[in-house]
Design brief:
The protein is an alpha/beta fold and 336 residues long. It has one domain: Adenylosuccinate Synthetase, Chain A, domain 1 (3-Layer(aba) Sandwich), CATH 3.40.440. Helices cover 31% and strands 17% of the residues. The chain is globular. The structure holds guanosine-5'-triphosphate, inosinic acid and magnesium ion.
Length: 336
Amino acid sequence: MPSAIIVGGFWGDEGKGKIVAYIANTDKPKIIARGGVGPNAGHTVEISGQKFGLRMIPSGFVYKDARLLIGAGVLVNPEVFLREVELLKVADRARVDYRCAIIEPRHCEMDRTQDHLKKIGTTGTGCGPANVDRVCRIAKQAKDIPELKDFLTDVPLEINEALDKGNFVLIEGSQGFGLSLYYGTYPYVTSKDTTASAIASDVGIGPTRVDDVIVVFKCFPTRVGAGPFPTEMPAEEAERLGIVEYGTVTGRRRRVGYWDGKLAKYSAMVNGATQIAITGIDKLDRDCYGVKEWEKLTPKAKKFIEDIEAEIKVPVTLISTGPDMDQIIDLRKEKL
Ligand code: GTP
Ligand code: IMP
Ligand code: MG
């Protein structure tokens, strides 16, 4: 698969970070590029017990030979970017498109204090207000920030040239379908479209160059912040099921719900899914924890997956059985 886009199918936090890290480590892409809104995202990557919470650098950083690019569509907070570059020691390969719009402290301040944004329950990371300035054409760009000088590149040029040479490029989205400005639960959404087409545009590849779209769903969808959640369960029920999660960026407790087949099908359609990844199957059935072979899944888990395939008519190729990068069943060879 020369190019693959990974996106979230529900309300974000589906485990895209983990899926991206696994694919990067296994398929060794030349480039891992990040689309999506900006540092409102929090991707978690766990490798052998070590946990990383990433907001700007692509989750595929674990594969050490890949360029790590941030597409022009993404908002950059220079402080967050530079901190992660330092922490992960990726200064030699992390780059931002020179046209990325910049989040300034005043954007964060507005995001935290404006009444209507507080009602929506935004992450307070300045993304919405920075996108407003971008649309008003008064935002700064990465090329205007001296501290980013050594990190600038032309992301579409790098990606399209890599694709021309037949290299594999992995493209990582953020947030999820239900948070899309266009298709989500407006006004309780983020400040951009979050579907695969938008992610392609964020990094500067045309629709004709996208080979695979992998939509990630979690067995029990979650949502942080306000807004409709048709399959939401009471907090006590989530506790009883042992599903208590907190946001990577905000630390807020995530609302938890049951599988939403209707939303999953619609989301796969709008994203043009060619593959589905399911995370958290260990939360459906504890006996699936850490399993790496389909045969070893419980009948309950197998039926859950088979029902999804029958309903959505897209193959489930990756099944995550725990937070660690290696806790996964990879069926891509058999199913594609
Ligand atoms: P956004 O870009 O913010 O939408 O985040 P994301 O999709 O990368 O997901 P995030 O890392 O915020 O949340 C997923 C959480 O589930 C993390 O804590 C992961 O470590 C964890 N996780 C991922 N896959 C599995 C899994 O199969 N089982 C369990 N138990 N946890 C998982
Ligand atoms: P904003 O993107 O910070 O403006 O927040 C708008 C809505 O999207 C809020 O409900 C946030 O909780 C949600 N949101 C934004 N980014 C993420 C994410 O990465 N994971 C989960 N929810 C998110
Ligand atoms: Mg997250």
